[in-house]
């Protein structure tokens, strides 16, 4: 079974487009028409993606084409997420517990301005998809249908790149973890040390792991670094394929290999090197599956380490050989800095010293980075004290976002 990443991403975008079509958002006929056009173009491209992903191994131009498609799909997801936020706003307006105060607050979000902004973004996406669709005929691709063995998984994907300025308040934790990972112990020869990072959804486990992964001391200490997003499907073969691709790149149709073949490729990739493996977003609580995976990574040098990020204390218990690092809420000063970063343009907050509600809003976010970023983004460009006061007094919104973060 091959790993059809571009196919999966395209399906995710199409799913979002379909969902938006049924949401009660004031889009206007022109925007809906462009969304339908976008759906039609991407559906045409998707029809040949299975063939493209199989043939890309021997065609560098095709690999570039697929990467460009994935880039546009990721950008599309970001744009379509804005529609979902708008739908959430409308949903909140209908809740009796929120009432007229929130209606007043959201009335400042001009529907016409939103429609104009989104229309422009959708037109840009349509143009990019049109250019990609025009090139697909150059590769003589044929339509392939998903076979019965192919099970499309809608999974959360993460990557190792981090914009360090976007992560606030985790420097000391990063320093401690880096120190722990770069200290070798002769006793490690018996077993690969595993450090779990544990915390609720939205607390910044992945962000902290990225900071550690990209630290200069870590780069100097480890010969090989592998980032694997696990999500809720702890399929042994799939994870080995991801690890090999993280270490060697996408050479060959790894998905069609048997596990016996893959373990040899993995050992060749590790090749007695001192490696760091990050397993991000782990949900598996089956100790047997964990031990099977860990055994496959026994081909590295002494000093190799594994970092696991998870929301589950049980996962930390079965996987960890080192005491887990429990990620706590941000302190107030760091919470404030993160909130201001998303609520104002750089330096703009100094122009509005009378917004006393800022502190109270930050306190209600309970130090959860995801919630701070979300509310900061919702309040971006809103500078009247009345708007901030209404938002501050809307308890239902804080409860909703804090609940969502626990399931994020």
TrEMBL record:
Residues 11-97 form the Disease resistance N-terminal domain. This is Rx N-terminal domain-containing protein. It comes from Gossypium barbadense (Sea Island cotton). InterPro entries: Apaf_helical, NB-ARC, P-loop_NTPase, RX-like_CC, Rx_N. GO terms for biological process: defense response. Residues 172-346 form the NB-ARC domain. The keyword Iron-sulfur does not apply. Keywords: ATP-binding, Nucleotide-binding, Plant defense, Repeat. GO terms for molecular function: ADP binding; ATP binding. Gene3D superfamilies: 1.20.5.4130, Helical domain of apoptotic protease-activating factors, P-loop containing nucleotide triphosphate hydrolases. The keyword ATP-binding applies.
